[in-house]
Write a structure and sequence with these properties.
Shape: globular
Order of helices and strands: HHEEEEEHHEEHEHEH
Helix content: 40-55%
Largest sheet: 7 strands, mixed
Radius of gyration: 17 Å
Strand content: 15-25%
Structural class: alpha/beta
Number of helices: 7
């Protein structure tokens, strides 16, 4: 019930007294789920990791949220999309921060770009929000270009903000309809190309939740 109420609450001011209780509650909930640190993971190849689990329990510098163009999260009570989960366990401060960004920007977040916020009650430091392409019908080169842009935008934003490790979810492969294997191919190739071009030392974690996605990424990462 609490999660449902947090999900439907519109952005807006909240009392310090509420935030103290909320923060203690959410951090304890995450602690009980179990936190995974980057140091516990084994690299699939230099600088690249594959991990199956709940991204809201991952302790790295930044996790990536597959956001919608409204940027303030999923308002469907207890919906199991990553946008809903991240906003739930970060706390209502995250929705307020995203709303502030959008208000200053003056327009919805374009597909393929990215924004960064604090992570609040999550065990990571930052959340990087990106809007992936929506595939309705045939997959096009435009869809592929926009998905690759999501990964590059997140990596560039991470680099500018001193982020040393970043966890990507499977952007656009849920309700946005991007075919899973092609999305994974684009993700891995874009990250490899960007690291080779920039010589960046940012470590990248490919986070999956489904067995099918794990098998796809394991195959692509050798």
């Amino acid at each position: 019930m609490l999660r449902s109420l947090l999900n439907i609450r519109m952005p807006g001011e909240i009392s310090d007294a509420f935030l103290i209780v909320q923060d203690e509650y959410l951090r304890e909930e995450t602690r009980q789920k179990g936190i995974t640190n980057l140091a516990q993971l084994s690299a699939a190849e230099p600088g690249l990791y594959l991990w199956k689990g709940d991204i809201t329990t991952l302790a790295c510098d930044a996790i990536v949220n597959a956001a919608n163009s409204g940027m303030t999260g999923c308002y469907q009570p207890c919906h199991n999309c990553i946008d809903n989960c991240i906003h739930t366990y970060a706390g209502i401060q995250l929705r307020n921060a995203c709303a502030e960004i959008l208000e200053k920007q003056g327009y919805e977040e374009p597909t393929g770009q990215a924004k960064i916020t604090p992570a609040y009650n999550l065990p990571c430091k930052y959340v990087i929000h990106t809007v992936g392409p929506i595939v309705q019908g045939e997959l096009t080169k435009r869809h592929e270009h926009l998905l690759a842009s999501c990964y590059r935008s997140c990596l560039e934003l991470a680099e500018r903000n001193g982020v040393r490790s970043i966890a990507f979810c499977c952007i656009s492969t849920g309700v946005f309809g991007f075919p899973q294997r092609r999305a994974a191919e684009i993700a891995v190739q874009t990250v490899r190309d960007w690291r080779a071009k920039t010589h960046s030392s940012v470590e990248v974690i490919f986070n999956v939740f489904k067995d099918e996605d794990y098998d796809i990424y394991r195959d692509l990462l050798g």
